[in-house]
Design goal:
- By secondary structure, the protein is an alpha+beta fold.
- The protein has 12 helices and 14 strands.
- It folds into 2 domains: 64 residues, no CATH class; 220 residues, Cupin (Jelly Rolls).
- It is 34% helix and 20% strand.
- An 8-stranded mixed β-sheet has the order 2-3-12-9-14-6-5-4. A 4-stranded antiparallel β-sheet has the order 7-13-10-11, with no helix packed on it.
- Bound molecules: 2-oxoglutaric acid (AKG) and fe (ii) ion.
């Protein structure tokens, strides 16, 4: 086995050990034996069989995953609060209850929905929903690249705090940080040079409250949420082409996302254990619409259409 693959495997095993908080035996030693490597074992001890079971389990899980999901799993992971190791995340993921997607051919589209109906059918069922014009009454046109740049520039410490404590997804760009994002030339910011797409979560409370002055919690969300202000805001923006590539998140709750500008198609892929009874769904979100998806349960990818820059804001809810 090539040196680099060996290191990757040893790293995987290290992570498995940490995750499982194993107490006896030496998982890494077993890997070293299998690989013929002389690397020092560093994993806590486990019983004799457990390491092999863990290895076999890892490989089996990888084998049963579909190719697209494998690509995604080994490509990138996002909004991860547990571990950045995709294999560990997949191993530790609870199996989905396939009623969330069974017999579902399309994402339900509502022109309006009451809080009671939303709570009854969608809030906790992991069934995705699109609410047309869910942002009506918001001043959506205020949100632009320049709005966000100005907001972070004018709020002392906001950029540093968000960079240190929150996440930034560069996707296919070479833009690695929020500072870099806001330092782009005007032409690039206006998508005149290339079509970039990025996302970030905001960790600055002042920025958070200004954002919330410009949008409302969607009316259909459970009431307790409407009063909460401590959820993170997530912003995704950019030009035509691929957006987020296929991934599964490890956040706590279901998310809503409002399309403030532009048009975006979501591909929602059921988890592999539901493949026999569930279909992959596609749903296109237009300016003003709100989509609700449990991104911990549905693998998802996005694609941005030609036209206005896609700008979204969203959050999780209970
Ligand atoms: O909006 C996007 O392009 C991706 C969003 C996403 O991955 C999420 O909300 O979990
Ligand atoms: Fe996601």
């Amino acid at each position: 086995m090539a040196e680099s693959s060996e290191n990757v495997l040893l790293k995987e095993i290290d992570d498995i050990c940490k995750l499982a908080k194993l107490q006896n035996g030496t998982l890494k030693q077993v890997a070293n034996d299998l690989l013929g490597s002389s690397a020092e074992p560093s994993c806590p001890k486990v019983g004799k069989l457990l390491p092999l079971v863990a290895l076999i389990l890892s490989i089996s899980v990888a084998l049963v995953l579909r190719k697209d999901i494998l690509v995604a799993v080994f490509g990138t992971t996002e909004r991860c609060i547990i571990s950045n190791n995709p294999l560990i995340m997949e191993l530790g993921r609870p199996l989905a209850d396939c009623t969330m997607c069974q017999s579902l051919d399309v994402v339900s589209v509502y022109q309006n929905i009451s809080r009671a109906e939303f709570a009854d059918k969608f809030a906790y069922s992991n069934i995705p929903i699109l609410i047309k014009n869910g942002t009506s009454g918001w001043s959506t046109s205020i949100f632009s690249y320049n709005f966000f740049r100005q907001l972070y520039m004018d709020t002392p410490g906001a950029l540093e705090k968000t960079e240190q404590e929150c996440q930034f997804f560069e996707y296919n760009t070479n833009i690695e940080t929020l500072s870099e994002f806001f330092e782009m030339s005007d032409d690039r910011a206006a998508l005149k040079e290339d079509s970039w797409y990025i996302g970030w979560s905001n960790c600055d409370p002042t920025v958070g409250s200004i954002l919330r002055n410009n949008y409302r919690q969607p009316w259909f969300l459970p009431r307790n949420v409407a009063e909460e202000v401590d959820e993170l805001d997530w912003i995704f923006m950019g030009g035509p082409g691929p957006g987020a590539f296929i991934h599964l998140d490890h956040v706590e709750k279901t998310s809503w996302q409002a399309q403030l500008s532009g048009t975006k198609t979501w591909t929602l892929i059921p988890p592999p254990e539901c493949e026999a009874v569930c279909k992959t769904l596609e749903v296109t979100v237009h300016t003003g619409d709100i989509i609700v998806v449990n991104t911990n349960k549905w693998y998802h990818a996005t694609y941005i259409h030609q036209g206005n820059m896609s700008i979204t804001i969203g959050s999780e809810f209970d």
